[in-house]
Automatic annotation (TrEMBL):
Organism for this UniProt entry: Dendrobium chrysotoxum
Any GO CC annotation of this UniProt entry: nucleus
Region named Disordered: 1-20
Protein name per the record: Small ubiquitin-related modifier
Keyword Nucleus: yes
Keywords: Nucleus, Ubl conjugation pathway
Taxonomic path: Eukaryota, Viridiplantae, Streptophyta, Embryophyta, Tracheophyta
Domain Ubiquitin-like, first and last residues per copy: 22-93
Top-level taxon in the UniProt lineage: Eukaryota
Compartments, as annotated in UniProt: Nucleus
InterPro entries, alphabetized: Rad60/SUMO-like_dom, Ubiquitin-like_dom, Ubiquitin-like_domsf
Membership in a protein family: Belongs to the ubiquitin family. SUMO subfamily.
Length: 93
């Protein structure tokens, strides 16, 4: 028997509720910090796009780093094993 859309919606809601939400900080070279709340499965590109909207430069001028490694846009906090309160460095080039 096929599930109804309301049953499917309930299943999706449970998955969303079960996802970890992290408080992350993006810190620029000059020490300015921007805080984000993100799901563990959110692509870093979403944070990067928002960060660049707040700053006066294009997205291709910024690289994000975590624990000394450059972050790829398709990476997620979960893949990078980020924890609540972790900091991402934003380097402008």
């Amino acid at each position: 028997m096929a599930s109804t859309s309301s049953e499917q919606d309930k299943g999706q809601s449970k998955k969303r509720k079960g996802e970890a939400i992290l408080n992350l900080k993006v810190k620029s070279q000059d020490g300015e910090e921007v805080s984000y709340r993100a799901n563990a499965t959110t692509k870093i590109s979403e944070l990067k796009n928002d960060y660049c909207k707040r700053q006066p430069f294009p997205i291709n001028y910024i690289d994000f780093f975590f624990d000394g490694r450059q972050i790829r846009d398709e990476d997620t906090p979960e893949q990078l094993k980020m924890k609540d309160g972790d900091e991402i460095e934003a380097l402008i080039h």
